[in-house]
């Protein structure tokens, strides 16, 4: 008998230890499923799925499964129920580690099994839902992908319009007022004094400030240790205590941080009408999600 998805997820979490705040990012957007067609060409390599420590990843197949096995680094809790496979990494492993997942189909038709790669990513970049097609994709799946593509295009159009409008505005404090970012209350600030640093952070936090106007800004000064590789921020996530993720407008740093150097990283949210409850967890990652920096207990003024 088919088990409801919320119960499956609860079972997958049942034996896990308490999770840290950074392992809970959940986007406020409507969740979407990334489709994978097993018949597509993958340059001789199995398709990849991004998983993260403490994050539930749901794989939805178009054919019932009989079992699933994992090999390689890390340990994964697996729950199989018909066409669903629930995965939760149970122990921390090195970012970008790859484990193999082999699933066996219940109907006995060819192919009888399929292999995928599980790539360990930061919790913010882990995939929550993946749709996997052994047979030709359904019209409903193609329509969902089309809607997601149209939504992404609309966001790009809106961002392009904002950039064009910004070019015609003055800079400095005058620009803040004209744009409406700064109202009559000005810009409130707060120094970060009690930040929780994740033990696996690849860079060292030196100082930090938060700012609030219509949008919110986090500025963190990071130092790249001697002997490490240069680090360039490519993405960020801000997650509240209830798991809600603030929409990031932009992430900025002037250049890559070389070994032994310090630099400020700026993360700004979209305008927020109602002040969200904190504290927040800030996750920064470099190229391909490597060498993440996770900072908890981020408070805004």
Keywords:
five-stranded mixed sheet, 2 domains, 3 helices, DUF2381 family protein, 15% helix, Immunoglobulin-like, signal, globular, six-stranded mixed sheet, Mxa_paralog_2268
Which helices and strands appear, and what pairs or packs with what?
Blueprint: H1 5-13, E1 26-27, E2 34-37, E3 48-51, E4 57-61, E5 65-71, E6 76-81, E7 84-89, E8 98-105, E9 113-120, E10 129-133, H2 139-167, H3 172-179, E11 188-191, E12 196-197, E13 204-212, E14 216-223, E15 235-239, E16 244-246, E17 248-252, E18 262-269, E19 280-285, E20 293-298
Parallel strand pairs: 1-16, 2-10, 3-9, 4-10
Antiparallel strand pairs: 4-7, 5-8, 6-7, 8-9, 11-13, 12-20, 13-14, 14-18, 15-16, 15-19, 17-18, 19-20
What does this structure look like?
This protein folds into 2 domains: 5-137, Immunoglobulin-like; 183-298, Sandwich (Immunoglobulin-like). Helix content is 15%, strand content 37%. It contains 3 helices and 20 strands. Strands 1-16-15-19-20-12 form a 6-stranded mixed beta sheet, with no helix packed on it. The protein has a 5-stranded mixed beta sheet with strand order 2-10-4-7-6, with helices on one face. 27% of the residues are buried. The model is unreliable at 11-31 (pLDDT under 50). Residues 1-23 form the signal peptide. Keywords: Coiled coil, Signal. This is DUF2381 family protein. Residues 139-169 form a coiled coil.
